[in-house]
Specification:
Layout lengths: L2 H31 L2 E3 L1 H5 L8 E8 L5 E2 L5 E7 L4 E7 L11 E8 L5 E8 L8 H9 L18
Parallel strand pairs: 1-2, 5-7
Antiparallel strand pairs: 2-4, 2-6, 3-4, 4-5, 6-7
């Protein structure tokens, strides 16, 4: 084999392996940082992976918020008006967090269907609803305020 040809072959092989290593590292980094969105119904049905970091959105159930007096632990329930999932969060909640409010919680689902959240996001005004939460509520047949969606009546006879 010609020395120039051998050098080209080594260079091409080095570039191919280098490119493969870069793509592999990118895929590993993306897999670790992806946060998939699930509704409470999907968690109750077992569709959410246990131990993986996910996002869950819905409305905080009225009367479900309980705070531990000795720590920052807060427990509450999140609903899409079809199913309800329990959430535990240890930390300071956003100022806009309250019962009946639409929120998105990020964390991991434990073996018993409990979401252990490490981040809680509340909507920023009374009209805004995260798109994922709004879509999950619509799939459950509810509006953002919890009332049923009534299909429009056709005027044709």
């Amino acid at each position: 084999m010609n020395p120039k040809r051998k050098q080209r072959l080594i260079l091409v092989l080095f570039l191919v392996f280098g490119f493969a290593a870069v793509v592999g590292l990118m895929l590993v980094a993306l897999k670790e940082n992806i946060n998939l969105f699930y509704s409470p119904s999907q968690i109750v049905n077992g569709e959410a992976p246990e131990g993986a970091r996910i996002r869950v959105g819905g409305m905080v159930v009225n009367g479900s918020v309980s705070r531990d007096n000795q720590s920052l632990l807060v427990s509450f329930q999140l609903t899409d008006y079809k199913s309800t999932v329990a959430v535990q969060y240890s930390g300071i909640l956003p100022d806009l967090f309250r019962e009946g409010q639409g929120i998105v919680a990020m964390g991991k689902v434990s073996g018993r269907g409990l979401l252990v959240a490490d981040e809680v996001l509340a909507k920023h005004d009374e009209k805004y609803m995260p798109p994922e939460v709004s879509d999950a509520l619509k799939k459950a047949g509810k509006q953002e305020d919890g009332s049923d969606i009534i299909p429009a009546q056709s005027s044709e006879k």
